[in-house]
Amino acid sequence: MGISFGELLKRLRSERGLSQSQLGEKLHVDRSTIAKWESGSRVPDAVMFSRLSDQLGISMAELLRSVDMNGEPLNVIMVDDERIILAGGLPILKEALPGSLVSGFTMPSQAVDHAMEFRVDIAFLDIEMGRVSGLDVCRELIEINPRINVIYLTAYREYSFDAWDTGACGFLLKPLTAEKVKESLKHLRYPVYGLGGDARSEANDL
User: I need a labelling partner for 158 at 20 to 30 A (CA). Which of 48, 49, 106, 134 fits?
Assistant: First the structure.
């Protein structure tokens, strides 16, 4: 198994005699940001990957490759403001994505907070969530983790054209089924690892 991004970053930083604070100063970020990258709970955005490449003398390709080699369970979230739909959808994701950590949120803000603390590999987002648009949530998640795979969930086919403009890689019409989810995994923009085994499920605000 290859070295994870966090391990690679820590090794390269140590080889250059830099503390987390010193590397943070060079990148104009807080020490806590470096700590989160090294722990694997967060990954840099595209701009930061470029800066790290320059500061640490490593190609962006190698940095990006290490992000996919963390060896951790796949982290999946579902966001839908209708609790009954969320409650029904989580077991379907659990069935389609065995071995994954599946979390559900009825409040988009909690999903964003979760993504800021833990690296999310795949996000299934409802498009219409009261006054909050899933399209905007998608943009926030991509800003946090540029390599997240976002798949929209909606009952309205006409949203599909707007959805592609946000950087999402999939679009599923409700009702959600395990077969639809499995089919969507064939079109992920960024490859992910860790599929297989027994999925775990967590839900918030159900």
Answer: 106
Whose structure tokens read 């009954």? 84
With beta carbons less than 8 A apart as the criterion, state whether 106 and 86 touch.
yes
- pLDDT, mean over the chain: 84
- CA 88 to chain CA centroid, Å, is 22
What are the C-alpha distances in Å from 57 to residues 60, 63, 196? 9, 11, 35
Question: Do residues 80 and 163 share a domain?
Answer: yes
pLDDT higher than 90, residue 90:
yes
Question: Exposure pattern of 127-153 as b/e (b: 16+ CB <10 Å)?
Answer: bbbeeebbbebbbebbebbbbbbbbbb
pLDDT (tens digit, 9 = 90+) per residue, 54-68? 999 998 778 877 766
Work out the burial of residue 197: count CB atoms within 10 Å of its CB; fewer than 13 is exposed, 13-18 middle, 19 or more buried. exposed
CATH of the domain at 153: 3.40.50.2300
Residues 6+ apart with CB under 8 A from 58: 8, 12, 52
User: 139 and 80 in one domain?
Assistant: yes
Dihedral of CA atoms 28, 34, 36, 40 in degrees, nearest 10, equals: 120
Domain with 192, as residue range(s), is: 75-204
For the chain, the domain total comes to 2
Q: Which amino acid is at 170?
A: G
